[in-house]
Amino acid sequence: MGFADRRKRLMSSLKRPLLLWSGGPISRNYPHNLFPYRADSTFMYFFERPEPNSAALFDPATGKVTLYLPERTLDDAVWHGELATFEAERARHDVDAVRPVERLEDALKALKLDTLAVSDARTTRRARALTGADLDFDDPLKVGPLEVLESIASMRLRKDSAELAQMRETARITLAAHVEAMKDSAPGVHEQELAGIVDGIFSTVGCVPAYGTILSVRGEILHARGHDNVLQAGDIVLLDAGCEAPSGYCSDVTRCWPVGGPFTAEGGDVYDTVLQANLDAIAAVKPGVRYRDVHRIACRTVADGLAQMGLLKGSPDALVESGAHAVFFPHGVGHPIGLDVHDLEAFGDHVLYPGGRTRSTQFGTRYLRMDLDLAEGMTFTIEPGVYFVPQIIRSAALRAQFADQVNWSLAEKFLGLNGGRGFGGIRIEDDVLCTASGAEVLTVAIPKARAEVEALPLLAS
Ligand code: GLY
Ligand code: MN
Ligand code: MN
């Protein structure tokens, strides 16, 4: 579907005029030093490569779309290069008219219109002043009118062929980055060097990291921020990295591999368990299946594997029922992905937990980021993991709650493995498309078979 077709679909769902905003760049420290501009995802869904500080009015009474762009100035031309004329932009976007965004308030103040908050707070303030709506991008209940959010979400959740082509391309670039990081891993290498290699590969093809690249031997920190460690033999590297293309579409992939030799016995057992959970969850994907049930399948496989290792006690079903598996797998199996890494998360649980579904209150499962019935065209991640988090394993409350279901002394031993560095954690994350016949794994080419992730790293310094 082209951008104009998407706009037509949105228009047909509207009861009132809708004003969308691209947002503008955000200042780093002083106003003229800016972070790279990244347009609002919904705006990117309806307009290809939108200009900063633009807006678009959808008027269902006339069926017309008007794009509002900044006036072209001499300063622009001198400092950043001349911008295309309004007429060229009208033709490029195939909209009905282009008008100056500076005069938007004068043109629209008499209209009763809906609008959405965007991440750029300056633009959201402008939207609030224009409409009087109580908008706040940080509060999903205040991003915009629920029926508008639902219309947009129903479109964005199911990807068309153009979107999938973009996502396949980001998967291809992510493959190159992950394989290079694996190959360059060896005892003595700094995490920062590997993170730089990953981000550099993204950059050489015009992409950016879709989120701060997570590369750490401290895999038990789910979203570890720093890259301060030096790899040692016996470590497991966790790389959670994806790229975002100029179109806005992205990937989100996690792979893990051992440093300085094959996995230890414990490492291999945990790796096999996580990989099996990843494969079992992927095998469960098909239209009509509830995502929460995909999560449960991953939890069950993790519980089964950890019970075989002696870390958990009881049947896998009983362990998942009580939530004991979450001592080692304390997050959800994944999330939608597309223009946002956590696609549509800003719209909140009313679109991702629809129809009165609510989040579990259980430790771990409460982090499940969506509970939709899967449908053809949906893209989401499948990312089970097993982690040895000292703060969990030493939690008096969890020890009391799962006194009979967790082998706490064995778990404690994992904290002392690898010369006292601890086991860390393992996650295996793929980006998956739900097709009529089941899952298509968009990131399937990125090595995850145990033999491959053991063979690719340099085995000695
Ligand atoms: N990379 C963030 C996540 O996996 O959700
Ligand atoms: Mn993810
Ligand atoms: Mn990830």
Describe the protein's architecture and organization.
By secondary structure, the chain is α+β, with helices and mostly antiparallel strands. It has two domains: 3-156, Creatine Amidinohydrolase, Chain A, domain 1 (3-Layer(aba) Sandwich); 161-460, Alpha-Beta Complex (Creatine Amidinohydrolase), CATH 3.90.230. It has 17 helices and 15 strands. The strands form five sheets. The chain has a five-stranded mixed beta sheet, sandwiched between helices. A hairpin with a 4-residue loop joins strand 2 (55-59) and strand 3. Helix 8 (161-183) packs antiparallel against helix 9, helix 10 packs antiparallel against helix 11 (291-308) and helix 11 (291-308) packs across helix 12 (316-322). The longest helix is centred in the middle third of the chain and has 23 residues, at 161-183. It is globular, with a radius of gyration of 24 Å. The mean pLDDT is 97. Residues 211, 240, 252, 335, 341, 383, 429 line the site of glycine.
The unreliable regions are none
Please give the CATH class of the largest domain.
Answer: Alpha Beta
Question: Shape from CA axes?
Answer: globular
Approximate strand percentage: 5-15%
Which radius of gyration do the C-alpha atoms yield?
24 Å
Q: What is the annotated CATH architecture of the largest domain?
A: Alpha-Beta Complex
Tell me roughly what share of residues is in helical segments: 25-40%
Structure classification? alpha+beta
The CATH topology of the largest domain is Creatine Amidinohydrolase
Q: Biggest β-sheet: count, sense, barrel?
A: 5 strands, mixed
